[in-house]
Amino acid sequence: MMITLYHGSNVNIEQIDLSKGLIDKDFGKGFYLTDIRSQAEEMAKRRTRITGTGIPTVTSFSFDEDTLNYPEMNTKVFPDIPCEEWAEFVYANRHSSETGFQHNYDIVVGPVADDGVAFQLERYHEGLIDLQTLTQELTYKKLNRQYFFGTEKAISKLTKL
């Protein structure tokens, strides 16, 4: 099924450049999109404010969700609500510059870890809460879904609209 995904930035995305991705993000270094336009609009405003350059811009792409089931694609789809596996994965990626953690997924789909989530992840990192408590705390957060594209093979499945 074809869906529209959105990327919010301070520039229009003419061509996706994976080298511009930042480390220590929820699902690692890659290109992030959402199926919620308003979420992309907010990200575009935030990115423009942080960089102090450009204008808030949302770039749209079409994507065939059936791609997530192709055997040649290494994909991971988390439930829409936090689970321990998701929490551990986000934690590992957000600390990858310290630990060297890297995964080999082409595409990852799952909840977005917002600032409140980052706070809980830090409490977990400091040993103040255990994994079960972390997962319970994250269950009460309003989380949106994000799509991570981490390889050229994955990027090739996006069509700019």
Describe the structure.
- With 161 residues, this protein is an alpha+beta fold.
- The chain has helices spanning 37-51, 84-94, 96-99, 115-125, 131-139, 152-155; strands at residues 2-9, 31-33, 57-64, 75-77, 107-111, 145-149, 158-160.
- The chain starts with a strand and ends with a strand.
- The mean pLDDT is 90.
- It is globular and about 45 Å long.
- It has one domain (2-160).
Structural class: alpha+beta
* Spatial order of the strands forming the largest sheet: 2-6-5-4
Portion of residues in beta strands equals 15-25%
Spatial shape: globular
What does the secondary structure layout of this molecule look like, with pairings?
Elements: E1 2-9, E2 31-33, H1 37-51, E3 57-64, E4 75-77, H2 84-94, H3 96-99, E5 107-111, H4 115-125, H5 131-139, E6 145-149, H6 152-155, E7 158-160
Parallel strand pairs: 4-5
Antiparallel strand pairs: 1-3, 2-6, 3-7, 5-6
